[in-house]
Amino acid sequence: MAARKVWFHVDVNSAFLSWSALRLLQKGETLDLRTVPSAVGGNEEKRHGVVLAKSQAAKKYGIHTGESLFSARLKCPDLIVTPPDFDWYVQCSKGLIAILNDYSPVVEQFSIDEAFVEMTGSEGLFGPPVQAADALRERVLRELGFTVNVGVSVNRLLAKTASDFEKPNRTHTLWPEEVPQKLWPLPVGNLFGVGPSAVRTLDALGIRTVGDLAHADPEVLRGAFGVRGDSLRRHANGIEGTPLGKREVRDNSYGNSVTLPQDLTRPEQADATLLALSESVAGRLRTDGKTARVVTVQLVDNLFRRTSHQTVLANPTNTTETIYQTARKLIRQMWPHRPVRLVGVTAEKTSADQFEQLDLFTDARHSDKQEKLDRAADALRSRFGDKAVVRARLLDPADKPVTPGALSAAKARDKRKKGQ
Ligand SMILES: [Mg+2]
Predict the structure, then answer these.
(1) Is residue 32 marked as binding?
(2) What is the pLDDT of residues 127-138, one digit of tens each?
(3) Which CDD domains match (predicted)?
């Protein structure tokens, strides 16, 4: 039998608040904001400033993230409010990831203050998982000055759930055999991916706890949620299915995304990447004999804020050029104020219809020719590999082809380098 997998989920406790507290201490402030009712909040002068993060002491006053500073002060007049310092947060985040890279070559950052670390087979180096997790927590606190929770299990889903148990500065396991005792009694809304609207739907079905969901009738769940019902039930049983942070669980969708080697500040810098992603998405559609009606572009900025924009096409397509041109337009409409670290392209609402429905304004011959060209390129690629056909625009000034394959290879190379 193969050795069981081990995943850590590392989550910074009250990240923005504790990082700001740390910054102030470094600047000579003697009060540690973590020990008093305090909050990080934006734009106090403008009336709509909101709480971005709060201390444990502030939480005791019933203050929650997202509420207005005005209402937070009504609950706790002594509340100390400090503005956010996003550039400092990015530095803290990088410090954390650098330490995690010492523990494993497989570190997947999930948000600015969370990451998954695969620890399978590392017992010889770091000892049993719980011991390794404790040592990791202590090292982060000693070297960086802030606390983290570490969740330990056989997959990302359970590890992430475990890190959310009692805080701060704790290691928690949630092994599959612990699921009935530790996971099932929790309210169903605590399960990853179950938002308020799913909670309402489940409540109407009499499903209140994760255990209720784990044992619910699959047909009933499918009736209420479609195929997503199956994945909800799997999650309640501790089975991950599609890895968290990987491709989105959605039917009929072909997507690809890439974390960029460096953050981009202008949409033009993303064009070559968009073309490579469009090529890979369109190629998969063509392989499956499908066309898509909706093109979506996803961006993640360097604070890990995700945005996405989409367009419904006049005619379903599987040509690289159409998907690429649509993505280019979208990315220019949605470019954020902060540098971009991840770009994704998804084609959705696919159907098996092989024929584009042409409207009066489409040049039928052009589209047909484009599709033939694309098909010929796919055929060459499948015979001779990814580098056989490289569009001129995918060639960077150094003449290195940037194909989808090359992108993922570069990513894997990056990972290995970081792991050293
Ligand atoms: Mg956190």
Answers:
(1) no
(2) 999 999 999 999
(3) PolY_Pol_IV_kappa
Kindly give, in sequence order, each residue whose CB lies less than 8 Å from that of residue 409, ignoring residues fewer than 6 positions away. Answer: none
User: Does residue 356 have an active-site annotation?
Assistant: no
pLDDT band at 379; cut points 50, 70, 90: low
Ligand 1 centroid vs 160 CA: distance in angstroms?
11
Residue 391 CA to ligand 1 center (angstroms) comes to 42
Q: Which CATH number fits domain 184-236: 3.40.50.740, 1.10.150.20, 2.60.40.10, 2.60.40.770?
A: 1.10.150.20
The greatest distance separating any two alpha carbons of the chain, rounded to the nearest whole angstrom, comes to 73
CATH topology of domain 254-415: Dna Ligase; domain 1 (3.30.1490)
Residue 11 CA to ligand 1 center (angstroms) comes to 5
- The pLDDT score that the predictor gives to residue 255 is 87
Q: pLDDT category, 221, cuts 50, 70, 90? A: very high
Peptide bond into 105 cis (omega under 30): no
Q: What is the DSSP string of 246-281?
A: SS---TT-EEEEEEEEEEE-SGGGGHHHHHHHHHHH
Q: How far is the CA of 355 from the centre of ligand 1 (A)?
A: 48
Which is catalytic among the residues 45, 67, 114, 321? 114
15-87: CATH topology is MutS, DNA mismatch repair protein, domain I (3.40.1170)
* 386 appears as a binding residue in the annotation: no
Q: What is the predicted pLDDT for the residue at 252?
A: 72
The tens digit of pLDDT for each residue in 22-68 reads: 999 999 999 999 999 999 987 655 555 778 889 999 999 999 887 88
- How far does residue 376's CA lie from ligand 1's centre (Å)? 48
Q: Where in the chain are the domains?
A: 15-87, 184-236, 254-415
The CA-atom distances, in angstroms, between 170 and each of 95, 150, 152, 166, 173 are: 20, 6, 11, 7, 10
One fold for 15-87 and 184-236: no
Q: How far apart are CA 391 and CA 324, in angstroms?
A: 12
Place of tokens 């995700």: 306
Whether 98 has a pLDDT exceeding 90, the answer reads yes
